């Protein structure tokens, strides 16, 4: 006990949240998030409507009909890592999450890169979210105006697209900066609406199949649920790294433990309920759309590269006819609320990095009026906007490539976090049977899977044909993006290490491993 | 008046203005001040996942802000710091005012106010629409006023409409508590419709001034004497500009007659005054349940 507190001493002096026991500052306002509230936040963070439209196409292109199998398998590493996340969050609740945890387990350099991975991943997803939202905004206007695709086409003009996308970002930044929230009721309605629309969408697709008027009716087979039917190991890996993305964000329901009405039971139930809802939805949608459109590379086939980056955009019209605008509305609202919840995480990590001296102290500034990490929020928004603008002009497959790179970055920082959990708790592994599983086996296996996915994806993506098939410098664009992002992180890290060495000497966040509780008086 | 004055604080210049004015008022009236920072309540989060450690960070930060805020309060003034959680800043201030039985709530101007002038921020606006305690608006630059000045004069802008009684009561009790002179200001001459003949205005103005004076004398205790002035000019703004204002002066207005009983609502005359007023303004709810401001 005492050595743990001793190691945390530098944090305590700066008045930070770092007190690992977390006892000192409890009794804020009493925990208030109920079960339904937690599930609603969970679902709106994952934003299934947005996630599926962005990820379904790329996943089909990798694994064909076996998407349902990949979704089920992809959940396993996510679940295992989430357990590790929960243990770390319980021991060291800190808004820096992966950054702080990895720094305490492996030291400042690894911690810095884990924080970088998290920030890069969220900035990638911000730009992708905004990009998808723009396409659906135009589609929605098109559908309501009743014009046959002329307005929707405008979304693909890079200048209009970038301009509207930047406006979206500006709006989201303002909302995040001022911490504007909708009412709870509205948020419940939006999430329910999103789920209902997805269910209606898939039922309608099945009806088309049953009536024999589907685009390429493909009978549902059990083999769709069998990951071994994919045939190619590398395809499975590529599919998995995408399915990591679709569950990303789910762990928030597990880590909300301190603020739920019943901290013993609510988080577990909320996480379970959220994940069941999400998995059922994903399976329903993927099976119904596969049955409706098949995996062909022509027309509405899910294998068609033209439609893969945003499948709902192309399929909602043929499947729902006049009601297609509902899908647009669901994706739009889900991207909007996800945009806001996503903004919070890089901002909070940047704030923690600024606070511990891993980045300039400006990042730790909190707006005195709105109580948000103002500077960090604005920096994230600017970086995401610049990134999207450049990508949109140099790469027409921007949406697809960001999703694939995103999967890789998530594997990167989740993997580090999982290993951080294993290593951090090394002295407590055998304290109890529970610890053996939750601090050793589960995060270790999860971490190994993610690390393997990361490395294999990295190697595979060197091939210019990988993913969207965009080629840069003779290499796959996803590889260039991934390596570029990590390389840039290393460069900035070294620059920061020269400018503010205190953090890198471990003076602000020290290495730590809580002692075993089994022999407190050894 | 040994009441409490609630000061809404943010770590901004407007917040410093509010603290400085609150302290000056408290020193002059012998009240204690409660410096309050209102943080967002976490059940307000319905989209973003709540994060206990971030909330803790905010709380620590708020406490350090409060510490530096109280550092500028003179030692003679009793002050306490409070961190509150509420859905909105104004709501938190109102709850705190109720809890402490506060006589006043002090808030600063919005960012970007001109030097020495008022600009209503969203918090002040919300307060002015819902408070049941007088709200004191600190103009931009109040933090640079020498606290030793105290409160030298109180000017009450009095009309004949309902609400004048409560206003007079508040003005006199404040003048008694702070030992300030009382000045009664009639803006009737400028407040009449433009179509009214100037002769009529003069007569009406004089009559109103007399009436106010008579009424006020009746209401006043022997301790406080009051002078009466009649505002002159083409508009309210003009009239306010042409009056003399002391650095230690406070202006008091009643809330609009549109306000619900015992709630504030800034009337158009008061809003116009606010634009030009170089001194703090106190807005008093239409009817008060008890005298003296504390309840």
List the helices and strands and how they pair.
The complex is a heterodimer of chains A (522) and B (295).
Chain A: H1 2-7, H2 9-13, H3 35-46, H4 48-63, H5 67-91, H6 98-106, H7 108-145, H8 150-154, H9 158-177, H10 184-210, H11 233-247, H12 252-255, H13 266-293, H14 311-320, H15 324-355, H16 374-394, H17 398-424, H18 433-460, E1 471-472, E2 475-476, H19 477-499, H20 501-504
Antiparallel strand pairs in A: 1-2
Helix pairs in contact in A: 3-10, 3-13, 4-11, 4-15, 5-11, 5-13, 5-17, 5-18, 6-7, 6-17, 7-9, 7-15, 7-16, 7-17, 7-19, 9-15, 9-16, 10-13, 10-15, 11-17, 11-18, 14-15, 15-16, 17-18, 17-19, 18-19
Chain B: E1 4-8, H1 13-29, E2 32-40, H2 52-71, E3 79-86, H3 89-100, E4 104-108, H4 122-130, E5 135-138, E6 153-157, H5 164-178, E7 181-186, H6 188-191, H7 198-219, E8 226-230, H8 236-242, E9 249-254, H9 268-276, E10 281-284
Helix pairs in contact in B: 3-4, 8-9
Question: What assembly state would you assign to the polypeptide chains in this entry?
Answer: heterodimer
What structural class do helix, strand and pairing data of chain A support? mainly alpha
**What's the number of domains of chain B?**
2
- Count of helical regions of chain B: 9
Rounded to the nearest angstrom, the distance between the terminal CA atoms of chain B is 11 Å
| Mean pLDDT across every amino acid position of chain B | 78
From the spread of the alpha carbons, the general shape of chain B counts as: elongated
CATH superfamily of the largest domain in chain B: HUPs
Please tally the helical runs of chain A, counting DSSP H or I stretches of 4 or more residues.
20
Strand order of the largest sheet of chain A: 1-2
Strand content of chain B: 15-25%
CATH C-level name of chain A: Mainly Alpha
- Return the average pLDDT of chain A rounded to an integer: 81
CATH superfamily of chain A: Amino acid/polyamine transporter I
CATH architecture of chain A: Up-down Bundle
Cα-atom Rg of chain B, whole angstroms?
A: 19 Å
Tally of individual domains of chain A: 1
Pattern of helices and strands of chain B? EHEHEHEHEEHEHHEHEHE
In the CATH hierarchy, the third-tier topology of chain A is known as Amino acid/polyamine transporter I
Largest sheet of chain A at a glance?
Answer: 2 strands, antiparallel
């Amino acid at each position: 006990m005492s050595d743990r507190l001793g190691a945390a001493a530098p944090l305590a002096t700066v008045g930070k949240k770092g007190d690992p026991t977390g006892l000192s500052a409890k009794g804020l306002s009493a925990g208030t998030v109920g079960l339904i509230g937690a599930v609603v936040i969970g679902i709106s963070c994952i934003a299934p409507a947005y996630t599926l439209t962005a990820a379904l196409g790329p996943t089909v292109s990798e694994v064909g009909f076996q998407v349902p199998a990949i979704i089920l398998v992809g959940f396993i590493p996510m679940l295992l890592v989430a357990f590790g996340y929960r243990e770390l969050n319980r021991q060291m609740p800190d808004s820096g999450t992966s950054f702080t945890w990895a720094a305490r387990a492996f030291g400042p350099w690894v911690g810095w890169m884990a924080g970088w991975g998290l920030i890069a991943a969220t900035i990638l997803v911000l730009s992708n979210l905004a990009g998808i939202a723009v396409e659906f905004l135009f589609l929605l206007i098109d559908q309501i105006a009743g014009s046959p695709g002329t307005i929707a086409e405008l979304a693909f003009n890079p200048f209009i697209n970038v301009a509207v996308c930047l406006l979206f970002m500006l709006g989201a930044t303002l909302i995040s900066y001022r911490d504007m929230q909708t009412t709870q009721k509205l948020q419940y309605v939006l999430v329910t609406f999103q789920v209902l629309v997805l269910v209606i969408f898939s039922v309608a697709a099945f009806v088309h199949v049953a009536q024999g008027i589907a685009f390429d009716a493909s009978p549902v087979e059990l083999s769709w649920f069998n990951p071994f039917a994919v045939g190619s190991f590398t395809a499975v890996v590529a599919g998995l790294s995408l399915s990591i993305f679709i569950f990303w964000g789910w762990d928030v329901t597990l880590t909300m433990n301190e603020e739920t009405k019943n901290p013993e039971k609510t988080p577990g139930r909320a996480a379970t309920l959220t994940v069941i809802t999400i998995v059922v939805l994903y399976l329903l949608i993927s099976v119904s759309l596969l049955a409706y459109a098949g995996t062909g590379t022509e027309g509405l086939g899910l294998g068609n590269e033209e439609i893969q980056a945003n499948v709902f955009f192309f399929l909602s019209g043929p499947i729902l006819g006049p009601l297609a605008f509902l899908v647009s509305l669901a994706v739009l609202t889900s991207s909007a609320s996800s945009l806001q919840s996503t903004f919070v995480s890089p901002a909070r990590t940047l704030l923690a990095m600024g606070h511990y001296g891993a980045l300039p102290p400006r990042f730790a500034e909190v707006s005195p009026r709105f109580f948000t990490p103002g500077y960090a929020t604005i920096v994230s928004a600017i970086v995401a906007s610049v990134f999207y603008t450049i990508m949109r002009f140099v790469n027409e497959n921007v949406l697809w490539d960001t999703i694939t790179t995103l999967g890789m970055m998530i594997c990167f920082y989740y993997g580090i976090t999982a290993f951080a959990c294993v290593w951090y708790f090394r002295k407590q592994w055998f304290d109890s049977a529970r610890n053996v599983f939750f601090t050793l086996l589960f995060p270790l296996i999860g971490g190994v899977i993610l690390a393997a996915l990361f490395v294999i994806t990295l190697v595979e993506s060197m091939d210019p044909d990988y993913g969207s098939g965009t080629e840069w410098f003779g290499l796959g664009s996803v590889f260039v993006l991934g390596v570029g992002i990590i390389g840039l992180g290393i460069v900035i890290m070294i620059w920061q290490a020269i400018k503010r060495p205190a953090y890198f000497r471990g003076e602000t966040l020290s290495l730590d491993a809580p002692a075993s509780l089994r022999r407190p008086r050894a | 008046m040994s009441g409490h004055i609630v000061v809404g604080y943010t770590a901004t210049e407007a917040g410093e203005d509010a603290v400085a004015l609150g302290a000056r008022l408290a020193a002059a009236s012998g009240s204690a001040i409660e410096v309050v920072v209102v943080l967002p309540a976490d059940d307000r989060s319905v989209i973003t996942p709540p994060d206990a450690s971030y909330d803790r960070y905010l709380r620590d930060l708020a406490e350090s802000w409060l510490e530096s805020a109280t550092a500028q309060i003179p030692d003679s003034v009793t002050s306490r710091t409070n961190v509150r959680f509420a859905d909105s800043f104004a709501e938190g201030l109102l709850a705190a005012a109720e809890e402490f039985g506060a006589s006043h709530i002090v808030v600063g101007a919005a960012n970007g106010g001109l030097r020495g002038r008022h600009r209503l921020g969203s918090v002040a606006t919300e307060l002015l629409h819902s408070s049941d305690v007088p709200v004191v608006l600190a103009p931009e630059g109040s933090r640079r006023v020498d606290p030793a000045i105290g409160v030298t004069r109180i000017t009450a802008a009095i009309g004949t409409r309902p609400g004048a009684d409560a206003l007079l009561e508040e003005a006199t009790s404040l003048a008694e508590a702070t030992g300030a002179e009382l000045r009664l200001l009639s803006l009737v001459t400028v407040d009449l419709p433009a179509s009214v003949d100037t002769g009529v205005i003069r007569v009406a103005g004089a009559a109103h001034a007399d009436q106010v004076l008579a009424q006020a004398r009746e209401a006043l205790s022997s301790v406080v004497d009051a002078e009466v002035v009649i505002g002159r000019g083409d508009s309210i703004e003009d009239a306010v500009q042409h009056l003399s204002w002391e650095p230690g002066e406070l202006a008091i207005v009643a809330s609009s007659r549109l306000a619900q009983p015992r709630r504030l609502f800034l009337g158009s005359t008061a809003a116009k005054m606010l634009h030009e007023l170089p001194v703090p303004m106190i807005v008093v709810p239409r009817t008060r349940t008890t005298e003296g401001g504390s309840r």
